[in-house]
Amino acid sequence: MARPTPLSGFPEWLPDGRIVEQHVLDVLRRTFELHGFAGIETRAVEPLEQLLRKGETSKEVYVLRRLHDEPAGADEPADRQGQLGLHFDLTVPFARYVLENAGRLAFPFRRYQIQKVWRGERPQDGRFREFVQADIDVVGAGALPYHYEVELPLVMADALGALRDLGVPPVRILVNNRKVAEGFYRGLGLEDVEAVLRGIDKLDKVGPEAVADLLVAEAGATPEQAAACLELAAVHGGDASVVDRVRELAERHGASTELLEEGLRELGALVTAAAERAPGVLVADLKIARGLDYYTGSVYETVLVGHEDLGSICSGGRYDTLASDGTTTYPGVGLSIGVSRLVSRLLSAGLVRATRSVPTAVLVAVTSEERRTASDAVAAALRARGIPTEVAPSAAKFGKQIKHADRRGIPFVWFVGDADEDGAPAQDEVKDIRSGEQTPVDAATWTPPAEDLLPRVVAAG
Amino acid sequence: MARPTPLSGFPEWLPDGRIVEQHVLDVLRRTFELHGFAGIETRAVEPLEQLLRKGETSKEVYVLRRLHDEPAGADEPADRQGQLGLHFDLTVPFARYVLENAGRLAFPFRRYQIQKVWRGERPQDGRFREFVQADIDVVGAGALPYHYEVELPLVMADALGALRDLGVPPVRILVNNRKVAEGFYRGLGLEDVEAVLRGIDKLDKVGPEAVADLLVAEAGATPEQAAACLELAAVHGGDASVVDRVRELAERHGASTELLEEGLRELGALVTAAAERAPGVLVADLKIARGLDYYTGSVYETVLVGHEDLGSICSGGRYDTLASDGTTTYPGVGLSIGVSRLVSRLLSAGLVRATRSVPTAVLVAVTSEERRTASDAVAAALRARGIPTEVAPSAAKFGKQIKHADRRGIPFVWFVGDADEDGAPAQDEVKDIRSGEQTPVDAATWTPPAEDLLPRVVAAG
């Protein structure tokens, strides 16, 4: 077998990169649990017809077949009925899980879910075919109060803030409210709200002039209406004054509506609460449109400060119908962190690093193969006290064993005391191979410095 | 959307089941790291031609295609070249990972890997189409000393032993050595070793008489040779006396060979070390054959005591060629825990349970929506001290808020003190809703009893 090469779009990390990813995942999980979110996992596959309910995403789905199935076999027919595809996000499976288990869940149901998803898109920097998402959602049965639209981005602010201890740059969470946009557009007299949102969504890519042309050509806007939409999109700020600015703008353009007013009350409440609970993290940004997604209230995007080119690393919003079984409708609000996108940038830009690539703190040297069991016993004693330990692969010269530890990044090498002539054990010794310092120790009591016990993730350079 | 039904073979757990699974995974990971194994993850897909190298498994593979690809499009042609399939184990991807990254890994390389795998098999009790495996392997470059064949099952004994704290039943690890079997068969004059192994592998299913017939019919054995093979397969025991019994048997049948003797030395060393380091867990069992797998030395299977019908929950062995790039061969030894198989039995047989289905220890009640921020502040203070906390969904009557906590299994409800007429804050109080006891508390200092802080996993009943 020749040396294989990586598959584009399917990232894998070396062990030290995986330590970074695992630390990120641990911090996220810990934060979500502190906020009372229960962890669930769903299967990787969903019926194809479920995955294709949102027509937009059909291009991206990976369809499965069993290798030896006949294309039109009885078990898995060739038409879509019964076919399975890999999930492309964690929202569609979560909606299905909620419906399937509604009778056994307590609502509002708070869940986090950290899993891989797959999209058959063309890979780019930060855009993969297989990647890890970390989602939180709250879903209600029949109704869901607005205050969850304030709470959920603040949970993410807490989670992403906790990552700063690992050396991750700060984030800025950009929020908008669909009701504000829709209320304003309708107040202006624009009825094709989707077309306007589609145009505004391109602002960062093509610039305001091209968007104005688009709004005229595709959303039926006059140049004046287009200009007003662009004025709205330009509003942003970290305090409640944005609400006043939008209100002033709407009055000036005669675009005030009840829907706009409702959206502004919500947006104002969110910005005010955020300014208090996560100062400087959350910013109202009226150009955030979230494309054609099914959001109906707050929408969120998140940039890594200094890495805005990466695009959003945490997005979501409020949807009035996550799922419905005909009797009950389940509204929800949620956000999803693109963990692979974030971690790939952390690694490729050298922003953070693991202090070593193995969990091992101590390598117990082996004096001779006959005495390996003495080294095994020391290792067991250290592990019993929570110290990650391995035993040297061979009874090579000590210099070679130290080199093995060095190559693996293990900070300490333990030498088991030889029984002396009288049969009394000589003292064990441990060497810090970074300083070269070697000291007499006892496996029942010695502990490495706290910072050496486990690999840590720290800001690089 | 009608209420969806589960997909056979794709298990999912409710939140309390997921807590059990997550605890199991945490204990495994923790133990593997204590033993110096580095965690890696590989992508879920491999080139189909890689997955089909072992012909036996070709039936089980799920093949991927992108929904809108033409069957013979330029991007992913219809022939196997370039096609991707989901991995059916973690060994094939690990072998590829080792080859791909050999220059950046230190050997012997110790890794653990906990991921889902997929097999298009017919689902049965404990046999799924999607399931989680937890693997450990040590792989050497060019050579790998025998002592790793002793170490790895003992790491698994440690990991599975650590699960006993959660209420998981004890396990028995059954070991054999291919060299013993092959040496014995060849000593008897049987050359088609694979055919003999294939027959012996059916012993538990069809019984000794049918196996004897098989050995005669398919392995070219005389009835006497078949009887000798069955005598060997009947040998088992937890100490080095098994070695003597096999040696005696071989002498009686004139079947002693150098290969047999080498295998017996290895098996004896393993059983002796295990009797000391994990007494009662590891048993030599000469009928363990591991089908047609590519093992060349020790082989391992593991049963959950009292649940032998479940089949092996942890299997593996020594393979002389995990991978090869033409220049270097990478021998290895590893075991794989069938986590989904284990967890599904723990849950379905009611062996263990989570003490609650949510991480939340405290629900902070809300007096009125205007005072929700006061409840948010208490929640933040508790979380800052590591206490999982959520805030009530609405300012309903306290009785209803307590009921919400009860339904979710949250043990404590916190009442924020109302400001009294003088503006001085009244005391906060917390109610243990199980005992009904309500006591004055301070969010800066109160801590729940340790056993209530997080959901625990305990033996049921």
- Please give the radius of gyration of chain A in angstroms: 28 Å
Structure summary, number of beta strands of chain A: 19
Shape, per Cα inertia axes of chain A: elongated
Q: In angstroms, what separates the terminal alpha carbons of chain A?
A: 38 Å
Structural class of chain A: alpha+beta
Average of the residue pLDDT scores of chain A: 92
Q: The biggest beta sheet of chain A, please?
A: 9 strands, mixed
In spatial order, strands of the major sheet of chain A run: 1-5-6-12-11-10-7-9-8
The interface involving the most residues is between: A-B, 98 and 97 residues
Count of discrete alpha- or pi-helical segments spanning 4 or more residues of chain A: 15
Reported by name, the CATH topology of the domain at 171-304 in chain A is BirA Bifunctional Protein, domain 2
Could you tell me the strand content of chain A as a percent range? 15-25%
The CATH class designation of the domain at 171-304 in chain A is: Alpha Beta
Oligomer: homodimer
The CATH architecture term of the domain at 171-304 in chain A is 2-Layer Sandwich
Secondary-structure topology with pairs:
The structure is a homodimer of 461-residue chains.
Chain A: H1 15-34, E1 38-39, E2 45-47, H2 48-51, E3 62-66, E4 84-86, H3 91-101, E5 109-118, E6 130-139, H4 147-162, E7 171-177, H5 178-188, H6 193-200, H7 203-206, H8 208-218, H9 223-233, E8 236-237, H10 241-252, H11 258-277, E9 282-285, E10 298-304, E11 314-324, E12 329-338, H12 339-348, E13 352-354, E14 362-364, H13 372-384, E15 389-391, H14 398-408, E16 412-415, E17 428-432, E18 438-441, H15 450-453, E19 457-459
Parallel strand pairs in A: 1-5, 7-9, 14-15, 14-16
Antiparallel strand pairs in A: 2-4, 3-4, 5-6, 6-12, 7-10, 8-9, 10-11, 11-12, 13-19, 16-17, 17-18
